[in-house]
Amino acid sequence: MSLDSNITQFDTLCPNRTIGPSGKENSVARKRYQHGRVFLKGKKKEKWVGRYREDVVEMDGNTRRVRRSVILGTKRELPTKRLAERRLDAILARINCLDYRPGRAATFGEFIERWKTEVLTTQKPSSARAVRSHLKCYIMPELGKLRLDQFGVENQQMFITRMPGRATEKAVSRKTILNVLGTLSTILTTARDWGYNCEQISLTKLRLPPRGTAYEAPHFTVEQVQKILAIAQEPWRTMFCIFMMDGLRAGEALGLQWPDIDFERNLLHIRRSAWYGRLQTAKSESSETVLPIPNPLLNVLKAYREQWKPNPQGFLFVTRNNRPPSSNKVVEYHLWPILDALEIDRCGVHAFRHTHTALLLDSGATPKVVQRQLRHSDARTTLEIYGHIVGDAHRAAVEKVASIVDPNGPQSSRSDKWIQ
């Protein structure tokens, strides 16, 4: 059952039609100051309900007057009717304002169709794909017939509660719920900017599922990486070396062209990304930067260029159609067979990036250097994703503290200054 079937607090009245001086029929009566109506509802837990009228502009441009009902609070919160009326006055202040103009109204289904044409088409294909999945699996089945102005905090919570099991029998993770709410928030922000009546999503007012066990991204040991590179054939060996030695994302490496590599100054320019054979901008502005090329990787690239087969656009890696390969095909047909042969658990090419980061931190690189190499916009993002990695400096500091308090080991002459 969709949320729209549970909405009973919004009742639409027939428009009040009048004939104007020009002889044309007006759909809404003239504006007047409203006090609204307040009354109690419910038996066991009485609630104050406020009722008022508001003008809305439909998708077809026609204006009509609708009746709104809003719960002001419980009888315990607002003991007297006068207190409830004061709360309703605050809600009516916007409507009674001299510069008030009717807001626009539409269902999610009506607005999203226009939003997809005007806004979604401007996003990167990789981003648009995730949004379309959210719309198809979660948003449209549950909210398609619901009006934008009815999607308040209560209905937002109902939407979150009903998400598990809607698109799949498995429970929906907290991260997926946050991603879907992010898509909804973008849609509602656009709706408000375009003059539609709707309420923004505030996570502080919602109850989300509890955070599950932290997920640690798969990564390789140094020995595993050496074995993978030893049996990998070209061009995949060079591709894996780029992933491993410079920590590039899959799309960034697949979108590389030879002009992006400065052999004289040992620099690699990130200018674009490839997604399913199509070129697009990098993940963010901070991702479009210049990285140092270590000497071992530079030697690998020089050797690969000698046997490289030219293509019109100068891509380092292409398919038979002279287009960058898809990362999922690289994983399925070229990485997994190697992992299976070496009896290593299957994973994606992002494991190389995670391994690169682990080795950076283990070698003593500061969080700022790691952030710069990974091209995260904020160092906190780096620490949140890779904060579980314990480097040598971290371990040495902990060992030093432990040696001071170890009852079976040598005691520090200064221990009495810290331990009373």
Number of helices: 14
- The CATH level-2 architecture of the largest domain is identified as Orthogonal Bundle
Overall body shape? elongated
CATH topology of the largest domain: hpI Integrase, Chain A
Helix content: 40-55%
**In sequence order, what are the helices and strands, one letter per element?**
EEEEEEHEHHHHHHHEEEEEHHHHHH
Structural write-up:
- The N and C termini lie far apart (65 Å).
- This protein has three domains: 3-104, no CATH class; 108-205, DNA polymerase, domain 1, CATH 1.10.150; 222-373, hpI Integrase, Chain A (Orthogonal Bundle), CATH 1.10.443.10.
- The longest helix has 20 residues, at 174-193.
- Helix 12 packs across helix 13.
- The strands form four sheets. Strands 1, 4, 5, 6 and 7 form a five-stranded mixed beta sheet that branches. The protein has a three-stranded antiparallel beta sheet with strand order 8-9-12, with no helix packed on it. Strands 2-3 form a two-stranded antiparallel sheet.
- It has 14 helices and twelve strands.
- Helix content is 41%, strand content 12%.
- It is of the alpha+beta class.
- A hairpin with a 4-residue loop joins strand 8 and strand 9.
Set out the fold topology.
Layout: E1 10-12, E2 18-19, E3 25-26, E4 37-41, E5 47-57, E6 63-74, H1 81-96, E7 103-104, H2 108-118, H3 125-143, H4 153-162, H5 174-193, H6 222-231, H7 236-246, H8 250-254, E8 261-262, E9 267-269, E10 273-275, E11 278-280, E12 290-292, H9 295-307, H10 327-341, H11 350-362, H12 367-374, H13 379-386, H14 392-405
Parallel strand pairs: 5-7
Antiparallel strand pairs: 1-6, 2-3, 4-5, 5-6, 8-9, 9-12, 10-11
Helix pairs in contact: 3-5, 6-7, 7-9, 7-11, 12-13
